[in-house]
Amino acid sequence: MECRxxxxxxxxxxxxxxxxxxxxxxxxxxxxNFMPKRSEIQNQLGTELYSIEVYSSDYFKGFDxxxxxxxxxxxxxxxxxxxxxxxxxxxxPEGNYAVFAYKGSSAEAGKAYQYIFREWLPSSEYELDHRPxxxxxxxxxKNNDPESEEELWVPVKDKxxx
Length: 162
Fold this sequence. Notes:
Strands 1, 2, 3, 4, 5, 6, 7, 8 and 9 form a nine-stranded antiparallel beta sheet that branches. It is built from two helices and nine strands, in the order ββαββββαβββ. By secondary structure, the protein is mainly β. It is about 15% helix and about 40% strand. It comes from Roseivirga pacifica. This is AraC family transcriptional regulator.
């Protein structure tokens, strides 16, 4: 799996969110609620959709599939002004990301994340940074289609600067 490092500028997002865990997965419900309303969002940047995870600072200390995190279905926007009341907003600060091109069914993406966290990250010059993680779903994204393509963005920082 190829990786590139990108510095993402501060970016604003508008969308729907829910608290969930791996054992209480609400991803489908979040997207079902979000998609019919996304056209109401003002000042969208591009057509990409963002699946965002906001984890607590201790989330990755010991695996617990019942540990909760915030899951988002969102779009990037120029401005948070004038957005629909039922939508939430999130601002992700500037930072470095390890970006992985993933091709395959969204149901199989867990294998890609296992590779990233168990193999790539420990052997790289980077460590996990405490910022939101996300997937970018552009025109080649086809949900559970094995030919679907998306990018997985994992926040990282230099091991030498921590």
